[in-house]
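yo

u said u wanted the structure for the complex thing, so here. seqs first:
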Amino acid sequence: SQQGEEDPQALSIQEGENATMNCSYKTSINNLQWYRQNSGRGLVHLILIRSNEREKHSGRLRVTLDTSKKSSSLLITASRAADTASYFCATGSSYKLIFGSGTRLLVRP
Amino acid sequence: DAGVTQSPTHLIKTRGQHVTLRCSPISGHKSVSWYQQVLGQGPQFIFQYYEKEERGRGNFPDRFSARQFPNYSSELNVNALLLGDSALYLCASSLSSVYNEQFFGPGTRLTVL
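structre next:
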């Protein structure tokens, strides 16, 4: 079963615009991670935010976490065509990650 | 340093057959996890192995099995293949068994006809 659910399922934006994806989860977490997947291949780790953190930045990425609402958001600023991919949030127990269903982002040149 | 490697890249099997997928973790990583990703969905956890012992198992039938070798590489075996086993199988490695950042391989695309 999926722990997280991303919203929206698909997003199409123009290059240079910002993209925001949201993730909701069901149970308590130690941390939450975001991954990117290009063309149905391997996943690439983007950022990890711990349960005691509210916001984290990495380059053009900004992640927020609201544990009271069991939700997180990923913001990609100044998007590029190369950002076109599927984005997944993941939470988990001590030995596994539980992924959401993902947001498919299309950045139009 | 090489990342996580998986073989083969693609595989076509027929129903009822058996398949073995292989994974080599990043050097120094002792944990290997396997995930199944059906088209249009997020990865689903199958197994985690750490120091050659199974540490966790997802909700998959006994047709799925795995093992980890002394060099920390791993195999995923699936018996009596069903059409529904068609998916991308992902291997991930990490430094420890505790939930943290995982490094994924490119995956093996399995098609069952």
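Residues 5-108 of chain A form a domain with the Immunoglobulin-like fold (CATH 2.60.40.10). Chain A has no helices and eleven strands.
cya
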